[in-house]
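User: What would this chain look like folded?
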Amino acid sequence: MLPFAALLTLLAAGDMLVPGRWEYPARALILALTLFLCSRRAISLRTVQALASVGVGLAVFAVWIAPDVLWPGWRDHWIFQNQLTGRLVSGIPESLREDPMVIVSRTIRAALLVPLIEELFWRAFLMRWLINHDFLKLPLGAFTVKAFFLTTVLFAAEHGPYWEVGLLAGVIYNAWMVRTRSLGDCILAHAVTNGALSAYVLLYGKWEYW
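Assistant: Here's the prediction, encoded as structure tokens.
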């Protein structure tokens, strides 16, 4: 739980922690250290369906960008941007978008650190904890309808103006955990999604996704 708490705290803190370009490597370093110190024993990168997990990750990426590609202006609707979900603003100022240190740090955070942190919290911890507070007694992928969909809704809420694609992504990732019972496969799928999204941001200038 501590790495996820650190992730949320850093998001809330913005550039108050470290101003300017050094904010981005500082965030990545703090998250990496928190993962190492608190969760290294819980992390398993072993996969049972690696190729399929890559496919799942690419499918979630397609789901994530599809509404904005198919219907330009889709996310301008008040149902996505409002006082509750927040506004769609890039976390990287225009002046820093060609800074290699910023880009590399942000990519590492998105494609490597966030998948580890979020899969540990949402799929490995919360989905089981909602079934039994002594969650370590349950196998990965343990399922009840309540735990599955409550985790999905909370995962969607975490993604603010992207809540509707976050909801679909949460269903897919949760279902993949239930199917594979493998943390490594879910981390791989999530990493592929975020890596593809990072490439999309950099290739097409879609900074609102970052």
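The mean pLDDT is 95. If you want, I can go into more detail on any region.
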